[in-house]
What we know:
The chain has a single domain (2-112), classed as His-Me finger endonuclease fold. It has a two-stranded antiparallel sheet with strand order 1-2. By secondary structure, the chain is mainly alpha-helical. The model has no long low-confidence stretch (mean pLDDT 93). Helix content is 60%, strand content 7%. The structure holds zinc ion (ZN). Zinc ion is lined by residues 66, 68-69, 71, 102-103, 105-106. The site of zinc ion has 8 residues, from helix 3.
Amino acid sequence: MATFEHLVRELLKATKRVDHSLQQLQHKATQVQQKYEPRIEFERWKQTLGGRKWKRQQYKQQDGRCQMCQRPITLKGSHIDHIKPLSRYPNLAITSENLQILCVDCNLRKGKK
Ligand SMILES: [Zn+2]
């Protein structure tokens, strides 16, 4: 019967649509995860002994100045910046070669780009 075949075809089509939506959802979930997890990892790292030690050393290396505008900064009032943005390079979240210290102004300006 044509009607039965028609129903089966419609059912298959509907199943495919559901599969497709599910895939899209999973894709979005992965994107959200990738966006937030490195940020959390980085925030956590900053609080660790290793993270704090890195910042002190880097601060000395930069001669107590902002890497971008070269203005003198305080260790406490400065920000750790990702040279290659975290959103595009989540694998470099806590790679010291990708980190620099900026003054608050430069960091915020950079973030707006
Ligand atoms: Zn600066």
